[in-house]
Amino acid sequence: MSEISQMLEAVRRTVESSQAYESYAERHNIRSAANLTVTDAEIAASIAARIEDRIRDKVVVEIGGGIGLLSLYMAAIARRVYCIEANPMWAASFTHLLIEMKPKNLSYIFGAADEFVGVIAADVAVICTHSDVAGMVAMGTQLANEAIDVYGEMIEAKPSAFDPLARELRALPDRRLR
User: Fold this and answer.
1) In the β-sheet with 122-127, what is the strand arrangement from edge to edge?
2) Which pLDDT score is estimated for 2?
3) Residues 71 and 150: beta-carbon distance below 8 Å
4) What is the CA radius of gyration of the chain?
5) pTM of this prediction?
């Protein structure tokens, strides 16, 4: 496990197991698991390339953007990207990444996506997760004309390429792992 992966896992274990975090998640209607699915530049670049024709020159909102890696790569393609992340551990963990790499057309927003209905009007919502997919897609359709469930489309195209646990998590109604 890489140094960055170890750090992220330690932060996740510490924050998610605390009562304060449980109260925070309840207050902000966070139903997704505190697990990152886009953890390195190679994954982010390949996903951005996969959806390039659907986001080129458009306003994009990524819901559940984690540390913002995918949004960084989408910002090289899209006209404007809003990365919304409600979980404080990811926002705090990668502030330095945003300082080092954030382009002007990318805004990283710390808050729950439902806070921005009527404020952000995007062409495309991107959801790249295995947990609370239905909730995030529903929110995406309130913020944009089209919602892309990246992993859902990839699993549908080639189910055998994905971890069975990831496929199972997507089917559960409340995906917060306790």
Assistant:
1) 106-110, 80-85, 59-63, 122-127, 144-149
2) 63
3) no
4) 15
5) 0.81
Residues 6+ apart with CB under 8 A from 148: 51, 54, 124, 125, 126, 127, 140
Cα-based angle 10, 44, 177 (whole degrees, multiple of 5) = 40
Residues whose CB falls within 8 Å of the CB of residue 121, separated by 6 or more in sequence, listed in order: 59, 143, 144
Low-confidence ranges of the chain (pLDDT < 70): 1-5, 7-8, 11-12, 14-17, 32-35, 93, 165-178
| 81 Cβ contact partners less than 8 Å away, ≥ 6 residues apart | 59, 60, 61, 62, 71, 74, 75, 105, 106, 107
Residue 96's SS3 state is: helix
Amino acid at 55: I
Strand, helix or coil at 13? helix
Q: Are 143 and 63 in contact (CB under 8 A)?
A: yes
Which of 53, 69, 81 has its CA nearest to residue 128?
Answer: 69
Residue 178 has a pLDDT of: 34
